[in-house]
Specification:
Number of strands: 11
Bound molecules: adenosine-5'-triphosphate, magnesium ion
Shape: globular
Strand order of the largest sheet: 7-8-9-3-10-11
Helix content: 25-40%
Structural class: alpha/beta
């Protein structure tokens, strides 16, 4: 469902991703690893449509969405959910407003939004947290809000950039199980950035970025 054809990405004059080609199939789960600064977030941002390649082309469901120097399809039209490394929650909005926002934009009616927000807050273990402000939440609770906000749109592809990084070991395990259970139930394709080989093993296939090149490992 995502295909890279000889994609290179430079930021400024610095080459970050070099001639990368891959195909990610519907329902596939991949852990993306690599040293800090190796370009993992840049790869995710290219798929989501926030970064244009300097060479090559990116396809989603057979449609060309980016080519050298050009974003052909903007992020909100790609059907791609992304959980950013810094979460990027809206601090002035409540938990419910954060999770509901994308549904509003999509024009989902209010009674339906309410039901969906409740269902997804339940799923991530945040029932009853809807009216809280973001600054009243712990780091782990914030990560759950980011997860619910991405999942409620039921994207066919979910990109997660180190979504468990600020959690304690127990919560990491618990939340990874939740994510994998939801993946089985909802069937989305998952690309999950992590520095933990233990997490990577649980996810399945491991891809590694080294020197700007992508190396696939089982
Ligand atoms: N907006 C930017 N301007 C300049 N350089 C950037 C920008 N974004 C990323 N870079 C550089 O691109 C390289 C890859 O960054 P990226 O964030 O993709 O790495 P990463 O693999 O996600 O690292 P980490 O594991 O630390 O999150 C780094 O050298 C970084 O400094
Ligand atoms: Mg990163």
């Amino acid at each position: 469902m995502v295909r890279f054809e000889n994609v290179s990405v430079s930021i400024g004059n610095k080459p970050i991703l070099k001639n990368i080609s891959f195909a990610l199939q519907q329902g596939q789960k991949v852990a993306l690893m690599g040293r800090s600064g190796s370009g993992k977030s840049t790869l995710l941002r290219s798929i989501a449509g926030f970064v244009a390649p300097s060479q090559g082309a990116i396809f989603i469901n057979g449609r060309k969405v980016s080519e050298a120097g050009t974003i052909l399809l903007p992020p909100h039209k790609r059907g791609v959910g992304m959980i950013f490394q810094d979460l990027a929650l809206w601090p002035h909005m409540s938990v419910t407003q954060n999770v509901e926002f994308g549904l509003k934009i999509k024009g989902v009616p209010s009674y339906k939004r309410k039901e969906m927000v409740e269902r997804f807050l339940d799923m991530v273990g945040l029932q009853g947290y809807g009216s809280r402000a973001i600054h009243q939440l712990s780091g782990g609770e914030r990560q759950r809000v980011a997860l619910a906000r991405a999942l409620v749109l039921e994207p066919p592809l979910l990109l997660m950039d180190e979504p468990l990084s600020s959690l304690d070991e127990e919560l990491k395990e618990e939340l990874l199980e939740t994510i994998l259970t939801l993946q089985r139930q909802l069937g989305f394709t998952l690309l999950f950035v992590t520095h933990s080989s233990e997490e990577a093993k649980k996810i399945g296939m491991v891809w590694r970025l080294e020197g700007g090149e992508l190396i696939a490992k089982d």
